[in-house]
Each structure stands twice: as C-alpha cells, then as structure tokens.
C-alpha cells in the first residue's frame, strides 16, 4: 500500500512527496533546474515545432529568439531538444537526430562552428581538417542523421570585425542542406545581421523581453513556483508587494527570479520557516546583488 502523502494541498503531488525526504535531499531537490512552461516559452516552442514539422526544405523557415541574458533562452532551447531526442535504438544503423543544439563560437570562427555541429551529431572530427573538409563532413552528417532544425545558443557571440563569411556559412546551411536555424541571442545580434540582408530576411524575430509586474504570465509563473517548491506551508508569492520585490531584485529576468526563489526556499527549509515571505526575502544573500556587482563597487580592490 502506497504511503499517504503529507497534508499539503498547496503543493503539486511530486512536491508533496518531496516533503518526506530528509532536509538535505529536499534542499537538493529545491536546487535543481525546474522547467515551467509559461506563455512566451510555450509560444516559442510551438513556433519551433511548426518549423520542425514544415515540409519546406528548399528555403526552410528560421526563428531568432532575442532577449536579455538570464531570461530563459537557453532553458527553452534545451527543453525543446529534450522533447525531441528519440530513444536510442541499438539495432539502428545510424542515429536519428531531428533537432540539435550547439553553442555559438566566440567570434566569427567557421571551423569552430562546423566542429560544434559535428560534435552535436556524435561525429566530432578526430584530426585536423580544412574548413572545406569540415563543411562537407558537417553537411553530410546533417543529412545522415535526418537533422531538420539546428538551434544555436548565444548566436550574438559570432560578432566580430570579419563576420560576413560566418553569416554566409549560416545562410548556406539552410540553402545546401534544408536544415532550419533557431537562434537564441541578445540584442547585439541585430547589428550582426545587418551585415547580411539575405540571412536577416530569413530569420523571423521573436522577442523575449524582461518581465513586467502587470504581465499575467508573471503571476502564473510565481504560482507555479509555489506549487513545485517543496515547502510545508503555503507561500504567498503572488502577493503584489512580494512579487514586486522579487521582480525588482531580479531586474525583470526570469533567471534572477528563479535563483532568488531557490535561495529563499532553501533558507525556509534550513530555518524551519517552511514558506517564502518577506521574512525569508530579507534573509542575507536572498535578494542581495550578485557578487560581481559587489566586487565592481568595492573601492579597496
């Protein structure tokens, strides 16, 4: 007979189960990544899904998600890839990889871009290759595994004084292989794409702005966090004053909100307070600025 779950109707059943764990394991549960499918993230996922399923391969559709750093772009990309990673088939002659995610190289370095694609497809180059050889191998590998959508995180990193050849390389991935591109970048990518009008015209922009207090999605986001953080008492995260404090401390970024909530929940477990409220937000280190901000402001360093 299954053990009866603790009486905590404010929590999701999985979070209620976590209340039975020792505190050290409950703290570990709090500190792990938590995917929350809020409205804008779901919309981006649906747009990527339409691109993935599209039959247009001669000039495939592309998407460019643009937003500030620490606002959930990488989480969206990784979640989409995880949803579309097929189970391993030991009997298959070759792997099927419909979606792959790579990190953009630091600067307009075409060999690093092509090597990253090969590594993501399970075929890292084992010896020195010319750019032409890497290109041929990458295009062949994309065809072999059935790649349809290549996601490139931190695409703004390709900016540099000689970026034009890199932009042509990205454009020709679609032209030569029929693979769509999904870019994730900060606003610096706008200046980069101005150097290649053809590629810019093929990238449909999708903004991911900072959160606002009056955004209904923000209240739903906080309510979801409250259901999944395993605390014994309800947390009034959607209270206007508390929600505003969180958003201001996070500078409107979902990554900052999530980090502050994890720190506050950990404090609530350690102190036995068992909920997030103004008392927990006032604890040292919960809403304090990042350590780098303190270092930059220090006058004696």
Give an overview in words.
This protein is of the alpha/beta class. The chain is 48% helix and 9% strand. It is built from 14 helices and 5 strands. Helix 2 runs antiparallel to helix 12 and helix 5 packs parallel to helix 6. The termini are far apart. The model has no long low-confidence stretch (mean pLDDT 91).
Percent range for helical residues? 40-55%
Q: How many E-type strands?
A: 5
User: Looking across the biggest beta sheet, what order are the strands in?
Assistant: 2-3-4-1-5
Write the CATH architecture name of the largest domain.
3-Layer(aba) Sandwich
**Multimeric organization:** single chain
Distance between the termini: 62 Å
CATH superfamily of the largest domain: P-loop containing nucleotide triphosphate hydrolases
Structural category: alpha/beta
Low-confidence stretches at least 5 residues in length (pLDDT < 50)? none
Number of domains: 2
The CATH topology name of the largest domain reads Rossmann fold
| Series of H and E elements | HHHEHEHHEHEHHEHHHHH
Task: Report strand %.
Answer: 5-15%
Mean pLDDT: 91
Largest sheet: 5 strands, parallel
| Radius of gyration (Å) | 22 Å
Q: What's the number of helices?
A: 14
Instruction: Label the overall shape.
Output: globular
Highest-level CATH class of the largest domain: Alpha Beta
InterPro entries: P-loop_NTPase, TniB
Protein name: Transposase
């Amino acid at each position: 007979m299954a053990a009866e779950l603790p009486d905590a109707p404010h929590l999701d059943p999985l979070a209620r189960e976590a209340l039975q764990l020792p505190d050290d394991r409950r703290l570990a549960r709090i500190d792990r990544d938590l995917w929350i499918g809020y409205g804008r993230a779901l919309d981006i996922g649906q747009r990527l899904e339409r691109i993935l399923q599209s039959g247009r391969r001669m000039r495939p559709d592309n998407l460019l998600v643009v937003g500030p750093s620490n606002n959930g772009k990488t989480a969206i990309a990784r979640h989409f890839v995880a949803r579309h990673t097929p189970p391993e088939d030991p009997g298959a002659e070759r792997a099927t990889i419909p979606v792959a995610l790579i990190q953009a190289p630091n600067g307009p370095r075409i060999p690093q871009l092509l090597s990253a694609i090969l590594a993501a497809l399970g075929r890292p180059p084992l010896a020195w290759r010319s750019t032409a050889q890497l290109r041929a191998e990458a295009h062949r590998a994309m065809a072999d595994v059935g790649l349809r959508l290549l996601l490139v995180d931190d695409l703004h990193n390709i900016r540099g004084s000689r970026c034009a050849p890199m932009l042509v390389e990205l454009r020709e991935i679609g032209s030569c292989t029929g693979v769509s591109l999904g870019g994730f970048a900060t606003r610096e990518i706008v200046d980069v794409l101005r150097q290649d009008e053809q590629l810019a015209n093929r990238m449909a922009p999708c903004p991911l702005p900072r959160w606002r207090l009056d955004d209904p999605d923000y209240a739903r986001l906080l309510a979801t966090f409250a259901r999944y953080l395993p605390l014994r008492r309800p947390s009034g995260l959607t209270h206007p004053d508390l929600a505003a404090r969180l958003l201001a401390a996070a500078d409107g970024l979902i990554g900052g909100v999530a980090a502050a909530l994890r720190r506050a929940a950990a404090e609530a477990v350690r102190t036995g307070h068992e909920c997030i409220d103004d008392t927990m937000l006032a604890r040292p280190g919960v809403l304090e600025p990042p350590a780098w901000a303190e270092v930059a402001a220090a006058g004696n360093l």
